[in-house]
Design goal:
Layout: H1 2-48, H2 58-104, H3 119-127, H4 150-158, H5 161-168, H6 170-181
Length: 182
């Protein structure tokens, strides 16, 4: 029991020591990189941006302004070109990553929601202004004649109810009912 606990303490102490050593190394590397970037920046500025000397006369000052404007335009053109190249490459990267994603075939299907929409509305949403066909589903159904039932035949035979009552009223109607009952 005790030797196992000693080994664990030693292992955690060693891990902590290694971790602190790695952090110190990383800190020194970061400082070196920052110093190298600063030196590189100073070299670039010294090379591309000479120290500014302001001329005394107005004509020399105007020429200096013209030179600076020309330089600004050329730098802007370069910046625009690099931005366009960057946009192009990011679009290509997105397309390639989408193709890679599609080739793997492991994509999650989004959860579908029920939408109440008629067939016409759905086609109009999918096709836009191209949709001209009317999808009236009931228009294509076949017409079926109903079979005549006995009740409907009786109702057709009876005809107009006023005419039937007039026939049964008076003595003739009672006579007919009496003869029919026998």
């Amino acid at each position: 029991f005790f030797p196992l606990q000693k080994k664990r303490r030693a292992a955690t102490a060693r891990r902590q020591h290694l971790k602190s050593a790695m952090l110190q190394l990383a800190a020194t590397e970061i400082e070196k990189e920052a110093a190298a970037k600063e030196v590189e920046k100073q070299n670039y500025l010294a090379e591309h941006c000479p120290p500014l000397s302001l001329p005394g006369s107005m004509q020399e000052l105007q020429e200096l302004c013209k030179k600076l404007h020309a330089k600004i335009e050329s730098v802007d053109e370069e910046r625009y070109d690099t931005e366009v190249k960057l946009q192009k490459t990011t679009k290509e990267l997105e397309d390639l990553s989408q193709k890679l994603f599609d080739l793997r075939g492991k994509f999650k299907r989004p959860p579908l929601r029920r939408v109440r929409m008629s067939a016409d509305a759905m086609l109009r949403a999918l096709l836009g202004s191209k949709h001209k066909v009317c999808m009236d589903l009931r228009a294509n159904l076949k017409q079926v004649k109903k079979e005549d039932t006995e009740k409907e035949k009786d109702l057709r035979d009876v005809g107009d109810w006023r005419k039937n009552i007039e026939e049964k009223s008076g003595m003739e109607g009672r006579k007919k009912m009496f003869e029919a009952g026998e």
